[in-house]
Amino acid sequence: MARTSTTKRQILDAALELAATKGITGTTMDEVAERAGVAKGSLYYNFSSKDLLFEALLKERVGALAESLRRAKGERRGQEAIEALVAELLDVIAANSALAKLMAAEIFRTDRVWQETLFALRHEALAVFAEAIAEASGPAGAGNADASAAAAGLRASAVFGAVLMAGLEWLVFEPERDRAEVAAAILATLRPA
């Protein structure tokens, strides 16, 4: 992640906090400047529009999420990698519930200027899950490699979404539960019956 100035960091953090509670549409640039403790001129110097501000925020945070998933997977393969990815995503959600709330609210919005950026970053994060899922599924036959890759991609989306929503459910409604218990419940739903 590129080095971010103190002012930009304050602005991005304030924008995330506000958007997590009010939504992006309900968040104004005036509120961001006030929450960040910066003059409106500084806000507009760093981000000339609300769209550019939230695109930068999502690019930074979802990009960092994809990188943390790649690190968590590391050299792990198959089921071991899936377990590490579920645990890492739950840890990221627990450490940054504001980002999780924002992602849950924005991931399927298609009317946003930054949708293409978010789609590309989402794809990076899902690719890590898809690789682990494909490895856990075993080698694909010569005739069905494309179908196996498509199935792994769809399963990756399902797993990522399940972890995101279960993580939010955990933090909001059952914060007393241990992260390992939440991860075990998610992983139990992924195993064949």
From TrEMBL:
Entry-linked PROSITE patterns: HTH_TETR_2
DNA-binding region, residue range(s): 28-47
Residue intervals of the HTH tetR-type domain: 5-65
Family matches, as InterPro entries: Homeodomain-like_sf, HTH-type_TetR-like_transc_reg, HTH_TetR
Entry keywords, A to Z: DNA-binding
A Pfam family: TetR_N
Protein name: TetR/AcrR family transcriptional regulator
